[in-house]
Amino acid sequence: MRVRIIFNLKNKGASVPFHHQYLLAQLIKGIILRGGNQDYINFPHYNFSAIKGQTKISRNGLHYFSSKVTLVFSSPSKAFNDYFLNNLFELPKIDIGNLILTPEYVEKEHVPEFSDQCKFICISPLVLKTPSFDSEESKKFISPEDDQFSDLLYESLMARMEKYGKYTPEQIESFYKFQLVPDKDYLKKIREKQKKFARIYPVYDQDVKFEIRGYTLPFTLYADPLVQEFVFTGGLGIFTHKGFGMVDLANVDPAMRAESYELTKTGIKQKHSDLS
Does the keyword RNA-binding apply (predicted)? Predict the structure, then answer.
């Protein structure tokens, strides 16, 4: 289930670093721990975007000038989503970088119909390899047009789907058809303009800072519809629970896919919306 969490921004013009996923990961982990549910203390099956809003760029990072900002949060588990949201909305305010935010309401994204061929865009970078303390392997560039790129994403995805525990061994075995094909026109334009679609990002794991390479590009994924749905709700690649690998369907208007969402627990404002 994917939701959009809308916050009021109390101090317009405040900033966060360009890549602030690690700040969000720390916040989200703290909220999960605050809830005290032992089943979710080490639960890794969730994903989230960067903070979305009207921004301007400076040397200090991204400055937000809209009165409201949005965070997309997603998990294949509705129970975990509700657990996280209930604990988030118990907080009167949260600080992310220099931003002072208060949670206001939640919208739920409709789950689209998935086929065995879906075109995605990256909301946050795809990470292919888990870093280690004494190796630079996770920072090496791998061309998205190389079969290894798709193979590494497939291996990590199958491991996560198996660990999630909602798919039978027979289903996991049936998911062998998998191929990620990058948008060649996009790659050509990026190269012609001498821009980058692959960068080095910081990530913290077990209180240790690592550097990893992340890729942001549109692609077509050929896979079973159940695999497509898991990618949509749980992300793709390594460190999805740290804000990497969130994707969205290409050529779809996000505004047409949301409706107000009411949790079972009281205390959350609802948005009066005509969206359906």
Answer: yes
